[in-house]
Design a protein that fits this description.
alpha+beta, Pnp Oxidase, Chain A, seven-stranded antiparallel β-sheet, three-stranded antiparallel β-sheet, 4 helices, 12 strands, 40% strand, globular
Length: 178
């Protein structure tokens, strides 16, 4: 059966993509705690699996954008549902005005292979070295080579936060494996 489709606003259609992963991006010098910031990002995507390259989309109006241009590395930290309030907070507050690490009670740990802060409370920590920056419109994509990764034991897919249509969610049931 053919479905009838009508033209819609492309911006609206793109915002209707199925759930995006939620990441807490850490940037700054965690060794001396200078310029450290964490920001909630939902524009997160793998650009290559081998070698692993991951990208984050950040608006140039964000404080994190300035820090990503200043430093050569960043971390991508995947929160679980127990960090939903902190994740929301980090997306609503500006790091110029508040220390989000302190306010959220995050343990600020320097990466093992990068100087950017890792959030120990997250399910997954990916340490990235900046590879490329792409200007693609209202967001810049910061691509990073994943140089170190750590994860808690267990099935991450069911625990990691997703974002869709203004709502934080968890993944649903699998309907088919490939």
């Amino acid at each position: 059966m053919t479905q009838h489709k009508s033209e819609v606003n492309p911006i609206w259609a793109c915002r209707g993509f199925p759930a995006f992963p939620v990441a807490l991006v850490g940037v700054g010098n965690a060794k001396d705690n200078s310029d450290c910031n964490v920001m909630t990002v939902v524009l997160v995507h793998m650009f290559s699996f081998d070698p692993p390259v991951i990208g984050i989309g950040v608006s140039p109006c964000r404080y994190t954008y300035d820090l990503l241009n200043k430093y050569e590395d960043f971390t991508i930290n995947i929160p679980g549902k127990e960090l939903v309030e902190e994740t929301l907070f980090c997306g609503q507050k500006c790091g110029r005005e508040v220390n989000k690490f302190e306010e959220c009670g995050f343990t600020l740990v320097p990466g093992k292979k990068v100087g950017a802060p890792v959030i120990d409370e997250c399910l997954v920590n990916l340490e990235c070295r900046k590879k490329q920056v792409l200007d693609v419109g209202d967001h810049f994509w910061f691509l990073g080579d994943v140089v170190h990764a750590e994860s808690v034991d267990g099935e991450i897919r069911e625990k990691a936060l997703l974002y869709w249509g203004g709502e934080f969610r968890l993944i649903g049931n699998c309907i088919r494996k490939r």
